[in-house]
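Exercise 7b. Backbone tokens:
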């Protein structure tokens, strides 16, 4: 069975992308980063998702981007934007500088060690918060980089970065996940969870998630979990 490295954050997008990889017959090697994020509940969610997917290995790496700062997700002095108008042309304070470039680079290195050529990432260019590293042109450029920056690439192996969700709306992603039998109650999306871990309901990620479930016509099971706390 071919191996694939999947970036797993604990959110519904990465869960769905990894499930697509499993559906397509890949043996999953999940990679999660403890990068100094303030919303650390996602690390527990990533563990739950990895177990549900039956991954071959779940690697959690420490890579403290809070030392660099520059993002509301890693710097407690920068407020997480709340209830802001959706505008994909505006890059919000929750953008983490070069995050997907860094994460994919590490995933590429692990894939080379595993003799794998396939990487999966749950980026989305439709319902997203304006991040430049979620766009198709970034993914294409990274695939070019992978062919030039690795021993495997120089020797002729073509790395492919799979982005099965990139052209889907959030509602379509949820519908896809339902066909794959996913339990979204395992996931978390909030950028600024309350002390008990429940979602704030006002950050970009919470609002995109809520709108997606509403448009898909299904209740969010994670909301029921939060209400039960």
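Sequence design result:
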């Amino acid at each position: 069975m071919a191996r694939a490295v999947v970036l797993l954050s604990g959110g519904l997008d990465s869960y769905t992308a990894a499930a697509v990889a499993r559906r397509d017959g890949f043996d999953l090697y999940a990679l999660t980063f403890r990068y100094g994020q303030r919303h650390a509940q996602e690390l527990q969610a990533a563990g739950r998702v990895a177990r549900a997917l039956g991954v071959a290995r779940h690697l959690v790496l420490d890579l403290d981007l809070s030392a660099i700062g520059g993002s509301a997700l890693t710097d407690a002095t920068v407020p997480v934007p709340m209830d802001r108008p959706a505008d994909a042309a505006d890059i919000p304070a929750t953008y983490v500088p070069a995050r997907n470039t860094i994460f994919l680079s590490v995933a590429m290195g692990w894939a080379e060690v595993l003799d794998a050529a396939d990487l999966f990432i749950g980026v989305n260019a439709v319902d997203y918060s304006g991040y430049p590293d979620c766009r198709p042109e970034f993914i294409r450029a990274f695939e070019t980089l992978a062919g030039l920056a690795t021993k495997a690439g120089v020797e002729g192996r073509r790395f492919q970065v799979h982005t099965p969700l990139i052209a889907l709306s959030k509602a379509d992603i949820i519908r896809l996940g339902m066909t794959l039998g996913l339990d979204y109650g395992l996931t978390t999306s909030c950028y600024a969870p309350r002390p008990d871990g429940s979602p704030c309901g006002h950050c970009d990620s919470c609002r995109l998630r809520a709108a997606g479930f509403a448009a898909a016509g299904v209740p969010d099971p994670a909301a029921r979990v939060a209400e039960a706390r």
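Instructor comment: The longest strand covers residues 27-34. The helical segments are 12-23, 41-53, 99-113, 136-149, 151-154, 170-179, 204-216, 221-228.
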